[in-house]
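Much of what follows relies on a compact textual record of a protein's fold. The record below shows the convention in full:
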Amino acid sequence: MNLPRRPLLLALALGLSTAGFAHALSPPRPAQVPEEVSNVAWAGDMAAFAKADQASPPPREGIEFVGSSSIRMWDSLAADFPGKPVFNRGFGGSEVRDSTWYADRIVVPYAPCKVFLYAGDNDLNSGRTPAQVRDDVVAFVARVHRDLPSTTVEYISIKPSPSRAHLLPGIIEANTMIRSALAALPRTGYTDIYTPMLGRDGQPDPSLFREDMLHMTPAGYAIWKKALAPKVSCD
């Protein structure tokens, strides 16, 4: 039996209204993380960099430091390399692939003569394998050289953090694989900061780290400064 037209329309309208109300009450879907990045939160960092660039743009053809929180928290970077056109674009707890994904926003526009990349321990901690980290570093080099073939990419080895001592075998393996891969690529370099950050017992030196045993004290950055100083130039 067919329903009268008016009651049918009323029923449809009520159904649509109820569906819309239920949709409004349902929690929003979480933001989807693209496969190429580790966290959608980095979009906020990119916006902050863009704002900072408008107020005070970094020097073109300068020396850039990019990567995870060990770079972001290097507050003494300019003072450690006086007279050098260094600038910092480290962000959050990023992974290697994040710097690759955002290279068109935080590397390519500056046309740096040299880029120092530090990332890798967050990657291993999140479950990526040493081989994947190696491949991610090679992909970063390829991405930079695609638009900036004359830029040198320097990789800073993964550090030995006491809080991640369980990852040390993977860190050693990743560092070895990355060093070998970069040796075959033009305009790249590798600096070992893993070894000088070990204590006399061959274990991570806790005196180089803050209370979280992950991020470094000025003593830790002093080791980085000494290791990198010969390379912080456009020569």
